[in-house]
Amino acid sequence: IDPLDLIDEYGADALRFTLTVMAAQGRDVKLDPARIAGYRNFGTKLWNATRFAEMNEVARNDDFWLHDAKLAVNRWILTELTRAARAITEGITTYRFNEAAGAAYRFVWNLFCDWYLELLKPVFMGTD
Question: CATH number of 3-125: 1.10.730.10, 2.30.30.220, 3.40.50.2300, 1.10.260.100?
Fold first, then answer.
């Protein structure tokens, strides 16, 4: 498989993330274009989440304190973010980059995008 062909078809970010996720110690990498396509979709998911935040005028608040979160859904995602950050940090500090990438993937796809953003849609469409 020519990596330049994969980059042309799926993008460099998708290839890099695929290689990171598959880079377990002592494991041979069996590169499958379908996996690269899946991680390209992950990049698209991140892009769409960012667009959702921008469309709803979500902004960073440098003075935010975790205890300021009022909605239960916000407290929940902050708890999950803390868990994910710990898992990612652990993976990086122990040179298990595949575990760090997997933890980031699971948090972003399964929790943040599939649940949190969907639960927020009624909040943003409300009258408040």
Answer: 1.10.730.10
